[in-house]
Amino acid sequence: MNLISANLNIMIKASEKASKTLIRDFGEIEKLQVSIKGPSDFVSNADTKAEKIIIEELVKTKKNYSIISEEDGSKINKDSENTWIIDPIDGTTNFLHGVPHFAISIALKSGNEIVSGLIYDPIKDEMFYAEKNNGAFFNNKRIRVSKKKQLENCLFATGGKESSNIELTTRKSGSAALDMAYVAAGRYDGYFQNKLNLWDVAAGIIIVKEAGGIVNTVDLSKNNNINIKASSSAINEKMYKKLSNF
User: What is the Cα–Cα distance from 200 to 196, expressed in whole angstroms?
Assistant: First the structure.
């Protein structure tokens, strides 16, 4: 068992508590698919409810930390140097359609860098997390990025409107957070996407880096329109060349 900080421990507890309601709500989605109203309002409520639980847990011990969250926006508190960055359901469209591929994402920004990150897939019970200078982990086991060196052997994740002239083997999963977690774990070799939100990728940034990967420089003062390119160091330059017009 690796040693984790008090802050990461809070993040783990918050995600586990919120996951219980998400799992229960996800179980109701199938019934809502056939209703006239549809599940959209239900999913919005599930999102808000999960976020509320996460924030309540985090502020129990760190009440002065600031918060950036998808549903609630930004709140600058007494401690403006430390900020929780929260996405209660990354992969909302998947959730909406009953696809079991979404995650809770929580990161801690201290100053102008991400120092802790957690991505939790409650359906598969897969938790990815990392802290600065302490490595990256998947369900308490150390993880590293892929060691593949040839692009033709690699699999990349992307999202949004992908350019048709990109000569890479790609997949679209619908969850930026899990895409980055999978890069950290070596399941994907790289990930690239434009026009993301900070809460989509904040946790993934440090998890990939601590797993030995490379992530492009991100302006953490921006909440929106973030472009991400992440991969192992072995193929980073080659990937960039293929994405020169992306």
Answer: 7
Q: Which residues are catalytic?
A: 70, 87, 89-90, 92, 200
- Look at the pTM and tell me if it is higher than 0.90: yes
Strands across the sheet containing 79-90 = 73-75, 65-69, 79-90, 103-110, 113-121, 126-131, 136-138, 141-142
What was the pLDDT predicted at 39?
64
- Domain boundary pick from 78, 108, 142: 142
How many angstroms separate the CA atoms of 191 and 185, rounded? 12
- Which pLDDT score is estimated for 71? 76
Containing structural domain, residue 67: 6-142
pLDDT of 246 over the 80 cut: no
Count how many domains the chain has: 2
